[in-house]
Amino acid sequence: MPSxxxxxxxxxxxxxxxxxxxxxxxxxxxxILVLIVLLAALQYRLWVGPGSRADLHGLNLEIVAQKAExxxxxxxxxxxxAEVEDLRSGEAALEERARDELGMIKGGExxxxxIERSPLPAVPAPPDTEPATPAPRHKKSSPAGPxxxxxxxxxxx
Length: 157
Known about the structure:
The chain is mostly helical. The protein contains four helices and no strands. The protein starts with 15 loop residues before the first helix and ends in a 55-residue tail after the last helix. The model has no long low-confidence stretch (mean pLDDT 76).
């Protein structure tokens, strides 16, 4: 009968168990430490580092925003293309645009422009006392005499 430590209970040669069980205890601790550090490095990269899940989520959100912007721009381009085609083919759109944007009228029509007045803003009451004004400074006159300013032109309306 084989004993507990016999070769019959030992795993076949060349397997990982045989390699690990053959290592002395300090080497085993070093191997476990290296594997834990490797696992921690891979987890860091997965959750925090470049190309992480957070980066992937941010990029997916950016893709969704870009697709929405692209769809908005496609719709706008279709509207502008329809307007261009309408202006090229029909006179009604051209006439409407000339009336609205350029203020043009047909012969025999009268142009009436209505201007709505907005209420005037409330004017604050003047203060009871006026602030003191500084005394005017006297300029030294030059030997040629004081300079005269040209008279202000009045514009007629």
